Amino acid sequence: MDSTRSLKNFSWSLNTSSISKKAQQCLYFLQRLRKAHLPPQILIVFYRGTIESILSSCITVWFGNCTASDCKTLQRIVRTAEKIIGVSLPYITDMYTTRCIRKANSIVNDPTHLSHTLFTLMPSGKRY
């Protein structure tokens, strides 16, 4: 009885706050790199290799269950990085969509995947 009650209260907010803390810590280093007058291309490489990889770690699993507040928190980190670098970066929802599509395509193209049979052609034969 207690385990079912605790499952009802389960949310991804703890996971999201952990991810946001890690990403915010890396923003400090991004600022330090900018103060060292590194070009934007290097700053983007650092962002994609550290902050974006933290934000998108297993994003296909947890992002769909995030609250609006959690999404805003994560997007705020992306906006802060945009301001530091001085270029436009993809929204967190775009990262999620891209990763989901990539995962679905890999499942469709791998007949040995356990979920391969879940994807069937629509009557038009063009889309899944």
Report on this model:
By secondary structure, this protein is mainly α. The chain has one domain. The chain has 6 helices and no strands. The protein has helices at 2-8, 13-35, 40-55, 59-62, 68-85, 92-108. The N and C termini lie far apart (40 Å). It comes from Hemibagrus guttatus. InterPro entries: AlkB_hom8_N. GO terms for molecular function: 2-oxoglutarate-dependent dioxygenase activity; methyltransferase activity. This is Alkylated DNA repair protein AlkB homologue 8 N-terminal domain-containing protein.
Gyration radius, rounded: 18 Å
The span between the termini is: 40 Å
In the predicted model, the low-confidence regions spanning at least 5 consecutive residues are none
Main sheet attributes: strand count, strand direction, barrel closure: none
Question: What's the helix count?
Answer: 6
Secondary-structure-based class equals mainly alpha
**Succession of helices and strands:** HHHHHH
Q: Look at the structure and give the mean pLDDT.
A: 88
**Can you tell me the number of structural domains?**
1
Protein name: Alkylated DNA repair protein AlkB homologue 8 N-terminal domain-containing protein
Domain Alkylated DNA repair protein AlkB homologue 8 N-terminal: 12-53
Pfam family, one: ALKBH8_N
Organism: Hemibagrus guttatus
